[in-house]
Design brief:
Arginase, Chain A, about 40% helix, eight-stranded parallel sheet, EC 3.5.3.1, alpha/beta, binds arginine, hydrolase, binds manganese (II) ion
């Protein structure tokens, strides 16, 4: 396997967008994800793959005390809509800037609510693009179907404009976007914990999804091929990868907020990234839900953070040989 090329990024410039955000769910600590990855050598590793690198911090200056005081903020079922909307709007703009400038957006979370920003910024820059969402969860609950009220379980529904009439009023920036994600533009790999309401949405909209059942049945190579074909039938369109580390089994990724057993092996998880990078179409990456404070041993932190680093490296062209 030769080193992948990056059709969209001849400048080989990456912007690491820090998204130290936890308001899309209830467990604190996930806001430390970006710092942990940076502290463990993310930038150096990217640079050693031949990319120039800068860091964007769109949430800088937000009043964290005020955000904490907002924990009581609930709209219908949705928790902390004000905070989630404000942070997601800032992250949208940071990703949009990357696409405009031809810099690879690597968004590091934080919880997965920020996926609503990265994938909408992606389709507004690349209306024919495809999205692969690697996750144990479908994150496609609407304001009406969510049982937990956690917006990290809803970003795909928001990015698709589902149940828009029941959105918390704060999401005006999202409501104003020209392009939203269409059902045929997104597919999943790694699902194994999908709520009943989400199953209905996936079925009704005909969204292609590859669960762990499909990984077992067809093998990861065939699943990645089918996923790329689903969202990029011509083979020529850009692909965004939104990677929730809980897609990988908790054996390898223990330090995450909603672990589910029976997941991807570490190699299956990395193969997805290697293969999409190898297509030459990779347009952006999110790495989310690394929560160091949920580790019960130091090994858990090291394993989880190293998995995050490996995902980044595979995306940016690291190959085994
Ligand atoms: N990004 C995640 N880890 N999402 C977990 C979502 C879990 C559940 N489906 C919910 O809506 O609350
Ligand atoms: Mn998940
Ligand atoms: Mn997720």
């Amino acid at each position: 396997m030769s080193n992948p090329h990056y059709k969209l990024y001849p400048k080989k410039h990456v912007t690491v967008i820090k998204a130290p955000f936890s308001g899309g769910q209830g467990k604190s600590g996930v806001e430390d994800g970006p710092e942990q990855l940076l502290k463990s050598g993310l930038l150096h590793q990217i640079e050693s793959l031949g990319w120039e690198c800068s860091v964007a911090d769109p949430l800088e200056g937000l009043d964290s005390a005020k955000m904490k005081a907002n924990v009581e903020d609930v709209y219908e079922r949705c928790k902390r809509p004000q905070m989630v909307s404000e942070c997601c709007e800032r992250i949208y703009k940071a990703v949009e800037t990357c696409h405009q400038q031809g810099s690879f957006p690597l968004t590091v979370g934080g919880d997965h609510s920020i996926g609503m920003s990265t994938i909408t910024a992606f389709v507004n820059a690349h209306p024919n693009g495809g999205i692969i969402w690697v996750d144990a969860h479908a994150d496609i609950n609407t304001s009406s179907t969510t049982c937990s009220g956690n917006l990290h379980g809803c970003p795909v529904a928001f990015a698709m404009g589902l149940d828009r009439k029941n959105w918390p009023p704060q999401f005006k920036w999202l409501d104003a976007l020209k392009t939203l994600v269409k059902p045929e533009q997104i597919t999943y790999i790694g699902l194994r914990d999908v709520d009943a309401g989400e199953k209905k949405i996936l079925r009704d909209l005909g969204i292609k999804a590859f669960s762990m059942y499909h990984v077992d049945k067809y093998g990861i190579n065939e699943v990645v091929r089918m996923a790329m074909e689903a969202v990029n039938p011509s083979g020529e369109n850009p692909i965004h990868l939104s990677y929730d580390v809980d897609g990988i089994d908790p054996l390898y990724v223990a330090a995450t907020g909603t672990p589910v057993r029976g997941g991807l092996t570490l190699r299956e998880g990395l193969f997805i990234v290697e293969e999409v990078a190898n297509s030459g179409n990779l347009a952006g990456l999110d790495i989310v839900e690394v929560n160091p404070s949920l580790a019960t041993t130091d090994i858990h932190i090291v394993d989880t953070v190293n998995t995050g680093l490996s995902i980044a490296k595979c995306a940016l062209g690291d190959t085994i040989l």
